[in-house]
Amino acid sequence: MTNVPLVESDIAPPSIRSVYEEFCRRMQFPSPPNFITVQGHSNAATRGIWELLKNVLLGGTIPRWKKELIIVAISRDRNCQYCEAAHLACCTMLGVGAEYMVRDVNGLPDAVLRDSILFAMKSARDPRGLTDSDFAVLAKHGIPQSEMIELISVSGLAVYLNIIADATAVETDAMMKGG
User: Fold this and answer.
1) N or C, where is the chain less crowded by C-beta within 10 Å?
2) Domain total of the chain
3) Is 98 contained in some domain?
4) CA dist., res. 21 & res. 30, Å (int)
5) By C-alpha distance, which of 145, 144, 120, 127 is closest to 57?
6) Angle (deg, nearest 10), helices 64-77 and 111-125
7) Same structural domain for residues 38 and 86?
8) Is the entire prediction scored with pTM above 0.85?
9) Separation CA 99–CA 64 (nearest Å)
10) What is the rounded distance in angstroms from the CA atom of residue 146 to the CA atom of residue 168?
11) From the CA atom positions of the chain, what is the Rg in Å?
12) Tens of pLDDT along 25-80?
């Protein structure tokens, strides 16, 4: 059971309902997920998370499916079951192949993707522990500094999402189970 009740669309104020609608349209969801509706008590929180998602997850040069895989890996590492399930479901929705949906990132055959995810995981776990050699690994793959910053931003977003999901004890949506 969630620590905070959900604010369903039918009872949400118009300003919150408009965020729900835009979220569903842009994220290609049939209905607003529990993660969004649990924040519906606060216009600032609901709009704030949506702006972060639009800019960090949907924007930038790194494809969304790669960012979703990063969030899955960080959520697994941090044991956030809601975010792992939600972002696995997003990966499935985006057509990510089974070869990328591995439990152990080290087993990914794509070295650029593997090293990007490992960098992002380290950024989420120990940001001050990132070294010149961590950045050099990405640079050797031809990853520009702008994408390195995006990877760090996705890491921060994943941690933020994990904190909200875990603190509210939001339950996994039926539409995301089995993702």
Assistant:
1) N
2) 2
3) yes
4) 10
5) 120
6) 50
7) no
8) yes
9) 17
10) 33
11) 16
12) 999 999 999 999 999 999 999 999 999 999 999 999 999 999 999 999 999 999 99
Structure tokens that stand for 115 in this block? 């090293």
The residue whose two tokens read 């300003």 is: 15
E strands of the chain, at which residues? Answer: none
| Tokens, residue 97 | 């192949």
Q: How many residues can be counted in the chain?
A: 179
Residue 13 backbone phi and psi in degrees, to 5: -65, 160
User: CATH code at 155?
Assistant: 1.20.1290.10
Task: Give residue-wise pLDDT tens across range 83-137.
Answer: 999 999 999 999 998 889 888 999 999 999 999 999 999 999 999 999 999 999 9
Same domain, yes or no, for 43 and 87?
no
Same domain, 22 and 102: no
Indicate whether 95 and 152 sit together in one domain.
yes
39: amino acid identity, one letter: Q
Structure tokens at 131: 């070294």
DSSP 8-state secondary structure symbol assigned to residue 63: -
Q: What tokens does 78 get?
A: 């941090």
